Amino acid sequence: GLLALTKGRISWAKGLPSDPEGATVAGAGADVVALPTFEKENRFALDKALLERRSVRSYNPDRKLSVEEISRLLWAADGVNRTNGRRTAPSARARYPVDVLVALPEGVYIYEPEGHRMKKLLPDDIRRSIPTQQGFKYAAMIVLFVINKDRLPGGRMEWADLEIGCIGQNIFLEAASLGLGSCIFAGVAYDRVTKAMGLKENQVLRIAQAVGG
């Protein structure tokens, strides 16, 4: 019985868009970044990640993220971890109203978990325009949590907030395992960023998270 369970867990974990054998580059191009696939064999202990999880509010502006680091961070955040399309973060009724956007030097992208890829929404580097607190302006990546109210069960914003909390903690732990710092911050220039990204009435920029060295 234990052997069968072990076999079941192994097969259950394979064939994801972020797995080497599940790689997909469909639609890759100038505005779509197919993130590198990787084996889920990080030897960094969960207990150690929890021990090292902390809020970092000052970043080295010269520390850039590799595409593999971005791939691991986004998969940990809200990537597909089951062959039925469910994700690493829980979502009420599996509606997934929270979109994970990332501001990088190359522009602003939306993460697409189903294909483990990023789609460019804006070609400009707006990282320094997002925070109102100086230290966060130099983070290598700023994650923007945007709620799509069309996918919000019963209009319950608190359910989306819970989802954001889970995604944010996933990022914290993966950042710790990669030797990076992170911090969720509410000091966001909401109106300016909403306008810059052209968000619609059904989209709400809720909060942000910095990641860097």
Give the helix proportion (percent range).
25-40%
Rg, please? Answer: 17 Å
Strand content: 15-25%
As laid out across the biggest beta sheet, the strand order is 1-4-3-2-5-7-6
Total number of helices: 5
Form type: globular
> Separation of termini?
45 Å
Mean pLDDT across all amino acids: 92
Determine the structural class based on helices, strands and strand pairing: alpha+beta
Query: Helices and strands, in N-to-C order?
Result: HEHHEEEEHEHE
What does this structure look like?
With 213 residues, this protein is of the alpha+beta class. It is built from five helices and seven strands, in the order H-E-H-H-E-E-E-E-H-E-H-E. The protein has helices at 2-12, 46-52, 67-78, 157-177, 190-197, and strands spanning 32-34, 98-104, 107-112, 117-122, 141-148, 181-185, 203-212. Residues 1-12 have low confidence and may be disordered.
